[in-house]
Model the fold of this input.
Amino acid sequence: MDLGRDSIESQLRAALAEREAQGLLRRLRVSEPFTGHTAPDGTLRFASNDYLGLARHPRLVAAAQEAAGRYGAGSAASRLVCGNLPVHAALDEALAAFKGREAALGFSSGYAAALGTIPALAGREDTVIVDKLSHASLIDGAKLSGARLRVFPHNDLGYLEKLLKTECARARRILIVTEAVFSMDGDTAPLREIVALKEKHEGRAWLLVDEAHATGIFGPGGRGLAAALGVADRIEVEMGTLSKALGSSGGFIAGSRLLIDTLVNHARSAIYSTAPNPASCGAALEALKLVGEAEGETRRKALWTAIARFAAGTGLPAASPIFPIVLGSEEKALAASAKLAEQGIVLPAIRYPTVPKGKARLRASLTAEATAEEIDRLAEALFGERSRG
Ligand SMILES: *Cc1c(COP(=O)(O)O)cnc(C)c1O
Done:
């Protein structure tokens, strides 16, 4: 029964071919594991989110092994069935203490945290207001919620204020969603100002801040940007990931007991998914310990020293470990990435749909393990003369 339509197979092939023609095709590559910025093949790499160099830290690896030995290779069930092991309870408690909040809940990933939490807090009668540059997990969570989705231009407080006013008049409740450190731009959100705007609608508007790239890096003890700015206790929903500076994997939400009780009852990505892997939880617990100790402080200091050096060498702002070098077209970004590769420097070209069309870029991320020489080589390769001042 041929209705003159292509088979699914040829439709999928055509879609991939079109991506390739636009310079947008993605392929998986195998990366050998390493710590720091010099890969086993001798290339310099600046793409990791392991900001404090903890992912292969002996203490985290040992803690993961220990947890696997004690609790198993898997959690065997979802948390509400019989998968809520002591290691999960301990991690929830440690996360709440780390964030200085009443309670916390761990998820299998940051992505799962966003996908479960936003729909648990907003539905058809509500409005979710998101910063335009928010991470895909936040946008997907907002879409899944069925709430009215309104987007404000990146960090545009005036626009946000207007949206809040109009939406508050029509919606049952408002959830404002933003990131602390923006993952592809490396800049930070004006959290104090956003909190103040939110508080004009006291009780009807809540704020969710995704601290994925700020956890472990900003604030006292690495508690995040909200803590650094002194507004953590005025943010209803603090989200974070265990998979970046904390070197493990998993995501979490911290806030009031009421919030966490709500998530336990309504966050589908926690309810209908096997409890996070015990080994990851064990490693995360050790990471939380470590970031609060002198070693954590030393690593944070090394990271910020690296950030300052690279910023000075390139003229880019020293806002976070993430440095975008926006080039424009997909071709330009790919060509720049290929040119660096010839010099043994691997900087991936970040393209649509990860960033908007016309904003393709190279994105460098630094870790505490970066040596002065590695940083200078990158600055020189990117900016030549300018990096020498
Ligand atoms: C990485 C990231 C996530 C997802 O976290 P995972 O633990 O990797 O799933 C969520 N939000 C932001 C801003 C991120 O950068």
Summary: The mean pLDDT is 95.
